[in-house]
Design brief:
- This protein is mostly beta strands.
- Among the domains are: 151 residues, no CATH class; 114 residues, no CATH class.
- It is 4% helix and 44% strand.
- The chain is built from two helices and 34 strands.
- The strands form ten sheets. It has an eight-stranded mixed β-sheet, with helices on one face.
- A hairpin with a 2-residue loop joins strand 16 and strand 17.
- The radius of gyration is 61 Å and the shape is rod-shaped.
């Protein structure tokens, strides 16, 4: 098992070198471990951190630390691959790399933080990944082996994250809510439903959607096709429904002005029908007949019947009678309420006035029953009149 430690401090005492190893979280792992010193380890001291930070240590089977590579060993291995070993230090926000060659390899002694700068042998350099992105916070950590190459005053680092164009797409509104992705040193948490405004009352019942990271189930009821026949009471289609079928308000061809009483409006149609109130009628007939067994004894029976609303007038001359003489019989209506009336004749006979007219209290209308003297044997004549009040 190999372990790369965060820090290593070396002290020399009694001709021996003692190492104190620290874990990545800064806690001591092993204290005052004595190791043999080879000729390559030449910088003993209380705080031998520059060179010590480049030491890779391996624990043996007994969990004892053994030096696996010295700084010169690392340099030799790097040289074999065309790499130049550099020493890394950090002061404030400035990372200093010291060495020679354009293909750099170093073991980081400190973390890279956002806003940090890098100098190579005292010359300020810009730093970017092979994809062209600037180094981000945490691009490398203390103890990491870092590789880059130098072109003039520009350092290009191996590894990296997304190209700039792709990294720009890594935005909360492009990721599903609750999902986090870390790239280019930045963690983005999705919120693509953050701009949703839909509520249950704006979706059909049973429909499912998402808004602001929450699941929304619709509650709008659906109403199928229906027909409505107008009546005397209002009929209401309740609000908050989805009309999935046609809603039909039935019409009627009889909804015409001449079918509606004057002064009355129905569904916006103003009537022009003048109401006519029947107030009196009279019907009559006369018959010429030969008495049975007789050769010349004729009778002229007459029948007059009718009705009058006493609020508007009265009838006289009604009843049944007979005589043996020719002549006329009359039925008379006398007005009891001044107003406008319509008088009409039907059948045989005559009336003293006909049509629409103004009649005052006391005025009369006379129906004359026709004479039966000019009719044939066993024949009759019938007629009558009707009187209507026009309000």
């Amino acid at each position: 098992m190999a372990r790369l430690f965060r820090d290593l401090k070396v002290n020399e005492q009694d001709g021996k070198v003692y190492l104190t190893l620290y874990n990545r979280d800064g806690s001591p792992a092993l204290r005052d471990v004595s190791v043999g010193v080879s000729s390559e380890v030449t910088q003993p001291g209380d705080n031998w951190t520059a060179a010590a930070a480049n030491l890779l240590l391996r624990l043996d089977e007994e969990d004892q630390p053994q030096l696996a590579l010295t700084p010169q060993d690392i340099g030799a291995a790097a040289a074999e691959n065309g790499m130049s070993l550099y020493v890394h230090q950090k002061s404030g926000t400035v990372h200093t790399l010291t060495g020679s060659g354009d293909n750099l390899r170093f073991v980081a002694t400190a973390d890279f933080a956002a806003g940090d700068t890098i100098q190579v042998n005292g010359q300020a350099c810009t730093a970017a990944t092979a994809a062209g992105d600037a180094l981000w916070n945490g691009f490398f950590r203390s103890g990491a082996v870092v590789v880059c190459y130098r072109t003039g005053n520009r350092l290009t680092f191996n590894g990296g994250g997304l190209p700039a164009a792709e990294a720009a797409k890594l935005a909360p509104e492009n990721l599903k809510t609750g999902v986090s992705i870390t790239a280019n040193g930045k963690t983005v948490t999705g919120s693509f439903t953050a701009d949703g405004t839909v509520t249950a009352g704006q979706m059909l019942a049973g429909a499912v959607g998402y808004a602001k990271g929450e699941k929304v189930t619709g509650s709008i009821p659906s109403r199928g096709a229906a027909a409505y026949r107008p009546g005397t009471a209002d009929q209401t289609i309740a609000a908050g429904q989805y009309l999935s079928g046609a809603q039909t308000i039935q019409g009627d061809a009889n909804l015409r002005a001449d079918n509606i009483r004057q002064g009355v409006s129905i569904f916006g149609v103003a009537g022009n029908l003048v109401p006519r109130i029947p107030v009196a009628y009279a019907a009559c007939s006369r018959v010429l007949g030969l008495l049975p067994g007789s050769t010349g004894d004729y009778r002229r029976p007459t029948r007059a019947s009718g009705y009058a609303d006493p609020a508007y007038g009265s009838l006289s001359g009604l009843g049944y009678f007979q005589d043996n003489q020719s002549g006329t019989r009359q039925v008379v209506w006398q007005c009891a309420r001044t107003g406008r009336y319509l008088v009409e004749l039907f059948g045989d006979g005559e009336i003293s006035a006909r049509g629409e007219m103004q009649i005052s209290v006391g005025q009369t209308i006379t129906l004359t029953i026709p004479d039966a003297g000019d009719i044939y044997w066993r024949d009759m004549k019938c007629g009558g009149m009707v009187i209507l009040y026009l309000p």
